[in-house]
Amino acid sequence: MLxxxxxxxxxxxxxxxxxQDYSIDTGGxxxxxxxxxxxxxxxxxxxxxxxxxxxxxxxxxxxxxxxGKNGLACITPLSETVRKNKLxxxxxxxxxxxxxxxxxxxxxxxxxxxxxxxxQNDTPAPAIERLQSPEDRAKLDGLYECILCACCSTSCPSxxxxxxxxxxxxxxxxxxxxxxxxxxxxxxxxxxxxxxxxSVFRCHGIQNCVNVCPKGLNPTRAIGHIRTMLxxxxx
Amino acid sequence: MRxxxxxxxxxxGGGAGMRAALQLAQSGYKTAVIxxxxxxxxxxxxxxxxxxxxxxxxDPQDDWRWHMYDTVKGSDYIGDQDAIEYMCSVGPEAIFELxxxxxxxxxxxxxxxxxxPFGGQSKNYGEGGQAARTCAAADRTxxxxxxxxxxxxxxxxxxxFNEWFATDLVKNSDGAVVGVIAICIExxxxxxxxxxxxxxxxGGAGRIYASTTNAHINTGDGMGMxxxxxVPAQDMEMWQFHPTGIYGAGTLVTEGCRGExxxxxxxxxxxxxxxxxxxxxxxxxRDVVARSxxxxxxxxxxxxxxxxxxxxxxxxxxxxxxxxxxxxxCELSRTFAHVDPVKEPIPVVPTCxxxxxxxxxxxxxxxxxxxxxxxxxxxxxxxxxxxxxCVSVHGANRLGxxxxxxxxxxxxxxxxxxxxxxKQGIELRDATTSDIEEANQRLISLNEGSAGxxxxxxxxxxxxVMQNYFGVFRNGEFMQEGVKKLADLKERIANVxxxxxxxxxxxxRIECLELQNLFETAEATAxxxxxxxxxxxxxxxxxxxxxxxxEWLCHSLYYREGQKVDKRGVNFTPRTVxxxxxxxxxx
Amino acid sequence: xVTQVTSFSRNGLSDWLIQRVSSLILLAYFLFIAVQIGLGVxxxxxxxxxxxxxxxxFTLLAVGAFVxxxxxxxxxxFTDYLTEYMLGPIGNxxxxxxxxxxxxxxxxxxxxxxQVIWG
Lengths: 235, 587, 119
What we know:
The structure holds 3 protein chains of 3 kinds. By secondary structure, chain A is an alpha+beta fold.
């Protein structure tokens, strides 16, 4: 029997959060953490609350803190995380808890919107697509794949302290995705908006983001590229 | 109950919904999107291989009429030819718009959009061999598409009601749709969202089956709401089983794998599709490939200790091709099949994937019903686009890569039409308090119920019935038994017990409401599947193995009231090309 | 609300650059001093060294670097931990008070050093 401990908080009935324990029969299978949650909700306790959608690691709904490390429940197998038969599931750290494992992601989304996450190009569009060489397109690899699960930003102390001012790794990765796009023309305006002491420069390069990204992306490297662009712009 | 008013309300924040919303938001009308998940969590995000469209990048001679021919043939001739013509001809414009919005398509050496071969594609009306017509962003096209659409909606300041769940349609005394009842999941507040145009873009319902490539959220909410409001459902027997769902997990492996040169093998290592489809082989229509796989398994040539799956071989393509063209597949296969496709073949099995049927609409997205004389009648105020709609461009079998095109083209078309209609002025009688109360009745009974069965157990039972009785191969006797089992489930699901009555982020409540929508979809599927006594496209019957054009070259219609099944004519009159006459369909 | 009005240069890139350049100056200064001490200088030699104009300039530069480095570093720490978001409204009282204390300390240090080397 797997010992599962889940962070519980219902704002209507609880003054403070507490951990609740469940003994779960996994049938000896190497389930994903999400399967365990589904099993608990279906057979043990229908009040356990979490987000989920695609169950294959592409929608970014079920970012959770699993045995102390942020990750997606649906692609984290028990064999990878469970030690001594114990599974501890908490909400992503640093954001307000709405209920149980569901956090309020407004601050996270606000930072994403702040970097103007859309292509800006005011030249009249051609009758076909804008051309882009495979080399220029390759510059977007490792950037556009972000699924906005918030595992990275909520593992970043700078984002914990200043979620309203520091864009955070996820937002900055997307900022660089547009800075790196050969079709985007707003490079200077984008950089100007990032040049304050908070937006980019609260990153101290501790690489928690890289360590937890379930898609294997590297926000720290992208932030380094942004800094270089800011330096080149100022020089 | 609070009322919030908009010019246009879109229910569903996937590809179709956000494309429609973008069109309306750009026109300046007060537009809202109601989505039960944050929009980029919608199931469009899981689409992998690409979006099929004759943009003449891979082949400068490519022609949208060839694409149209393939689509009509793929539909087994019950796709509406005016709608297919519209989709294939407008498609390039819609794709180029997406590229201009920033969608990171993969590129050719010339800098154009990369196109890969997909199943059922041909040049020169089937005479010119395999075409490469599916525009791709690696194997993450849906993700790239959905994020691009969300980003452009942010740019155009669309109002999003994220994590709101629409429960039922509100109709006025004229029978026109004038909005929806919706719950804010976070607070539990119920509101009436009033609108001059209500667009359903609620996606599919693959969760009616136990084994599906679909996300947990694909619960047929639009189908449930429409059927309860008296809107008919069209071609609900037509469910696509994708040939390559990962064995055991159900997660999708794109047809693009076979497009890039992968192929299926049985336990003997034989490339068996050469026997079933000598020309197209592994790139035959999905229905054909799925049936061939099941036959291999039934005839004892399946793989594994149970002999219950086949394998998709990719290792011969080499690590470089796999990592650059199919990186997401490598990732999924390692996670869910514990197999590295660079070295070993992936175990796969046909898995429920797509609902070809849905709410019947015209090419403007206007929902239709059929009057007593058998002619189409527009349902005022209601529109549908994307998977929940049945325009019908997919007929009895959808071609790979056509779903993304469908949702972009018809999301856009709905938006354009509504913009125009709003300009001319839409006058709908206001809903009365009792109209609103009536629409809210289902939610009230659920909240007030004190007994009944557990949602998870009922859902499992429903999915089991659909899986066992309405799968790839169907049989009349079996289906009748399935229909009986569903009849037994009907009351039990209507009275599902919601134990947790709390308001804050109560997902148990949402799951109950979703289950009732799943049931409506499943029941419609079961009853028409039993009624259509022929084999066509994805609907393969063991007791009626042949296509019967004399009786069934038509759409099926299902009405919830009295479980009535009816027929509706297929459109054979495209505007600019000659009709494609039904032929025997081989690959 | 934390603002950047009190930041050293009010610009992220400049602050970042100053932080790095100042640390190099400090590193050079302390290495130089460490080497002198390691060589076993006596008081006369030590006075003679610090009486040269070059050394006075070097020391002054190091003090300037110290003041800038300390301010930027502490400002970052204060605006991380001592904010309204972290502490509630009281953060907006504690932070300015501590900032004033740090400014005072740094100014006093700087004047003191100037007095020592030119006094």
